[in-house]
Every structure is written in structure tokens, then in C-alpha cells.
TrEMBL record:
Residues 42-200 form the Uracil-DNA glycosylase-like domain. The keyword 4Fe-4S applies. One of its GO terms (biological process) is DNA repair. PANTHER family: TYPE-4 URACIL-DNA GLYCOSYLASE, TYPE-5 URACIL-DNA GLYCOSYLASE. It comes from the Bacteria. Pfam families: UDG. The keyword Iron-sulfur applies. It comes from Georgenia ruanii. One of its GO terms (molecular function) is metal ion binding. Keywords: 4Fe-4S, DNA damage, DNA repair, Hydrolase, Iron, Iron-sulfur, Metal-binding. Belongs to the uracil-DNA glycosylase (UDG) superfamily. Type 4 (UDGa) family. SMART domains: UDG, UreE_C. This is Type-4 uracil-DNA glycosylase. SUPFAM superfamilies: Uracil-DNA glycosylase-like.
């Protein structure tokens, strides 16, 4: 018999601002990922940002430092934002899943993609963040983020650059789907890196002011 996951809703304070959400998040037991992670990794950036960036989940370094996108993928993302005309300091950055899911390989913790159940369990946090920030556009970095934001399975290659939206407290919110910066990192020093980076920049320009 499969154990029912309680989901995060009971731990999400109603109508809280971002500071209130961030303060409550360490107590979440909405799925089992909290037990092995170092800490919850919530968000960074302006709580009045026009642009919200949603990634998949924290990586190993993010899990240790407690902030999203502090590793190589974060550096690529910052470079791409600047190239797209978006000030990295003026965006709100979060993840669909707030705890690091991994498997051990020797002494190394290797990223493991969150399951649908993890995305659904953590969704109340993301919905509360979007309600608090009230952005004009949400950028989904990868398929896991897009599933959380749009509520359905998304193929990034088929839907990047397409006009998408989701309901928001002030009406429809534009949604931009693009690849996760880690996919660009994996091409560093290899053929195709420049093309992948340029494609990420082109997608981010759709969210630029």
C-alpha cells in the first residue's frame, strides 16, 4: 500500500507575505524529502518583482548554502538575464520543490529529478509565493517548473517561446517556458554551448520589460 503524502498545505500560512512564507517553510513535512536534505531552500530576490523565475529543485550546493541558484547554473542564469536585458537583482527566484532530492553515489550526492508527487506536495508553497509577489510574468526553467506553474505536463522543446498564461490574482499572468540553465552548463566547453546559451537568452527576452 502506498503511503499517502500529506502535501504542504497545512504548513503554509494563509495570506502570508514572502517573509512569512520563508519563516514557515523550514517546518514543512509535506513529503519525505525534508528528512535527508540539509535544509529547506526557499527563495531570493524582490518580493515585488515583475519577473518570477521558477526552477526545479535545489542542487547540492544550494542545499548546503540555503539559497537557490548559487552554483554554476546560477552563474549561467545571471549572465543570460543580463544579456536579455533583465536585472538579476530585480527578479524573484524560487524552485518548484524546496528540498534537494538526491541519491548517494559513493560519498557524492547526485541530483535525482523530483517526482510528480513531490511537485504536487510542494505546490502550495509556490502558489502562495506567486500570490504574494503578484508578478507580471513567470519564467519556468525546465519541465518540472513548467508542470508546477501550468498544472500539466510540458515539453520544453515544443512550448518554449509560445504565448502561455496562467490565472493570477490580478488577471492572467504571462508564462515563458525555457530550458533549465543546468542543461546549458552541461555543454560548457562542448559544441552547442553558444547556441544553447543564445536560445536561453532569446527565451528570457520574452520576459524583459
Amino acid at each position: 500500500m502506498t503511503e499517502e503524502r500529506p502535501g504542504a498545505q497545512r504548513w503554509v500560512p494563509p495570506e502570508a507575505d514572502v517573509d512569512g512564507l520563508r519563516a514557515a517553510a523550514p517546518g514543512c513535512r509535506g513529503c519525505e524529502l525534508w528528512a535527508d536534505a540539509t535544509q529547506v531552500v526557499f527563495s531570493t530576490g524582490s518580493d515585488r518583482a515583475r519577473v518570477v523565475l521558477v526552477g526545479e529543485q535545489p542542487g547540492d550546493r544550494e542545499d548546503r548554502e540555503g539559497k537557490p541558484f548559487v552554483g554554476p547554473a546560477g552563474r549561467i542564469l545571471d549572465d543570460a538575464l543580463e544579456a536579455a536585458g533583465i536585472d538579476p537583482s530585480g527578479v524573484y527566484v524560487t524552485n518548484a520543490v524546496k528540498h534537494f532530492r538526491f541519491q548517494m553515489r559513493g560519498k557524492r550526492r547526485i541530483h535525482k529529478t523530483p517526482g510528480v508527487a513531490h511537485v504536487e506536495a510542494c505546490l502550495p508553497w509556490l502558489e502562495a509565493e506567486l500570490a504574494a509577489v503578484r508578478p507580471g510574468v513567470v519564467v519556468c526553467l525546465g519541465a518540472t517548473a513548467a508542470r508546477a506553474v501550468l498544472g500539466r505536463e510540458v515539453r520544453v522543446t515544443a512550448e518554449r517561446g509560445a504565448p502561455l498564461s496562467r490565472p493570477g490574482p490580478d488577471g492572467e499572468v504571462r508564462v515563458v517556458v525555457t530550458t533549465h540553465p543546468s542543461a546549458v552548463v552541461r555543454l560548457s566547453g562542448k559544441p552547442g554551448f553558444d547556441e544553447a546559451f543564445d536560445a536561453l537568452v532569446a527565451d528570457l527576452r520574452l520576459a524583459a520589460p
